[in-house]
Amino acid sequence: MFDSLSEDQWQQFDKDGYLLLGRVLDDERLTALRGRIDDIMLGTVDYPTLQRQLDTGGRYEELADPVAGPGEVTLSYRKLQGLDADPLVLALITLDLFREACARIYGRHASISIFRAMLMNKPAGKGTHLPWHQDAGDVWKLDRDPVLTSWIALDPATRQNGCLQVIPGSHRLGLLSRNGSTLSEEDARQYCPEEQIVHLEIAAGEAILLHNWMLHRSGTNSTSGPRRALSACYMDGRTLNTVSGTRFPVVFGRHEEVETALPFVNSLRAESRRFQEMAAESERYAKSLLADNEQRELMRSEAERYARSLEGELVRIRQAS
Fold first, then answer.
1. With CB atoms 3.0 to 4.6 Å apart as the test, which of 17, 104, 197, 240 could cross-link to 143 if both were Cys?
2. Which residues, including other chains, have CB under 8 Å from residue 235's CB and lie 6 or more apart?
3. pLDDT tens-digit profile of 186-220?
4. Alpha helices, DSSP H, located in the chain
């Protein structure tokens, strides 16, 4: 195990879009993390941030989105997101090795946040085929594309149980689709020929550094054991969610630097809160007008009934006269 990368290794990463880091977990920490992941899947450990996605063994396109809240008691989850809340996982994804990698990619001045810290699991005898894709694009709803991901094996990753398959150097193509994610069939045929595929088989406790734009996929698991891996996507701490305007958990650097980096965004947030308060007040006023209108309608109906009763009484008086 090591906590520093050589210039030759960085040149290899720049060339291929991935780098085999070797072992980053000793036996004790590996055993602890395996146990923690099982405890989370079986419901004995839980965090508010967790989102779960079951493995169906079916088509990737038919998978349901990860959902929050209590889940099933099963070891057949395909994905667990929000694992940065767990101290064991957080200690792993914030190793000095990954801090140095982030400084190299984003600059030593930059605070670093994570888009997601998650488990990717291919349960024994199952697993969903993950098609060729890139981890970036508009589908992620970010104002800039992250480019660095760590992938740490909790079990041996082999061809038989669905290890990562990559096209070396494909990150230099850039994003093949503005939307990102899954490649079209035409792009997959053009850029992912069988003779260029490299299977990244690694032992438990070993890690891989990945460029997010590198084309990659994984198959199913035909073995009797799971293929589990922990992954974290690192990005510039100033990255914003384009839907909510919020930032993400900072793992390297100072939170204060991130919060003051874009004062214009902070002013927009304050203005947005004011508009929300005004909208809520307008809604309350509108509801009060509706209630008042209903009351007036009741009074009008009552007056109308009373007027009709007077008319009826007047008719009876005239008839009696």
1. 240
2. 106, 112, 113, 114, 115, 142, 144, 146, 147, 148, 248
3. 999 999 999 999 999 999 999 999 999 999 999 99
4. 7-16, 27-41, 87-93, 96-106, 185-191, 255-259, 263-320
DSSP state of 175: -
The H or E element spanning position 119 is strand 112-122
Handedness of CA 179, 120, 55, 88 (dihedral sign): negative
Q: Are 182 and 140 in contact (CB under 8 A)?
A: no
How far is CA 304 from its chain centroid?
61
**Under 8 Å between Cβ of 85 and 48:** yes
Distance from C-alpha of 93 to C-alpha of 99, rounded to nearest angstrom:
9
Ramachandran class of 197: left when φ > 0, alpha when ψ lies in -120 to 50, beta otherwise: beta
- Residue 114: both structure tokens together: 């994570």
| C-alpha to C-alpha distance for 257 and 263, rounded to whole angstroms | 11
pLDDT digits (tens, 9 = 90+) for 305-318: 887 887 887 788 88
